[in-house]
Amino acid sequence: MKKLHLKSLVVGLVFGVMLASTSVAFASGKISAVYSEMKLLVNGQAKSLKTKPVTINKTDYVSLNEISTLLGYTAQYNDKTKTYTISNKSSVPAKEAGVGNVKGAITWQYNDFVGTKADVGAKVFLIPTSFDKKSITADESNLYSMIGAVPKGSGLQFVKVNGFGQYELNDIPAGKYYIVISSKNTTRNSDEDLSDYVVSTLKPLFADWDTFVLFNLKLTNHEVREIEIKKGKTLDVSYDFGNTYY
User: Fold this and answer.
1) Cβ neighbours of residue 179 closer than 8 Å, sequence gap 6 or more
2) Reduced to 3 states, what is the DSSP secondary structure of residue 191?
3) How far apart are the first and last CA of the chain?
4) Which of 9, 83, 135, 183 could form a disulfide with 221 if both were Cys (CB 3.0 to 4.6 A apart)?
5) Residue span of the signal peptide, if any (predicted)?
6) How many domains are there within the chain?
């Protein structure tokens, strides 16, 4: 019987456009193969795949290259030896990573006549994408959520927007972060659910998720995005919240 190599099974089925029907027949029988609608979470965060997963006989198959990348690895295939090599991505040691800065202007629209005003008192949270919520105590987590008190050595950052509508965080270790900006002067419809992106991105980072939502997301407009701070660079992250809900 002809053997199916890993490349044939995973790469061929996932990357090849060969499934004209919901099943593929072999001499030994029939294999059911359909596109999968499964959702993918990596460390609690929703991720999307460029190549649609395939389900074969109730087993899901995904792109080895894409999964390796999402998990922080690289995958290389040697066609001569029929071998996949999966290895860690090269990274810069923390001591060489350096520091950078992030700043911005946060505004809102008072009305059609007054126009743009500084969102004085808006809160800016900066959270490493790799943050482990178990690295701080429950009390520390609550204080950070409620008043922005930063636990020592946690890597978390916080600042409020000043009277000119500006904020600035300096000497931040280079790397990827989630920035959360919570408006002071605009509100949102609290009956509406938070976006799937906000929940899937932030919930895994907070042991006291409900507290963070209540104080910073549920009642006020907010902006959440992933940013990268680079060594010796200042990143501008500005935002206008527009009009208030009421």
Assistant:
1) 102, 124, 125, 126, 127, 223, 224, 225, 226, 227, 237
2) coil
3) 71
4) 183
5) 1-27
6) 2
Residue 176's domain is classified under what CATH number? 2.60.40.10
C-alpha triplet 245, 103, 196: angle, nearest 5°: 45
Rounded to 10°, the helix 138-147/209-216 angle is 10
How would you write the pLDDT of the chain (246 residues) with one tens digit per residue? Answer: 434 343 433 443 343 333 333 444 444 556 677 877 777 777 666 777 778 788 887 787 788 777 777 777 777 777 777 777 887 654 444 445 799 999 999 999 988 788 899 999 999 999 999 999 999 999 999 999 999 999 999 999 999 999 999 999 999 999 999 999 999 999 999 999 999 999 999 999 999 999 999 999 999 999 999 999 999 999 999 999 999 887
Residue 246 in domain: no
Structure tokens that stand for 21 in this block: 């029907």
Tokens of 142: 């609550």
Is 72 in the same domain as 27? Answer: yes
pTM for this model (two decimals): 0.62
Angle at 156 between CA 164 and CA 207, to 5 degrees: 120
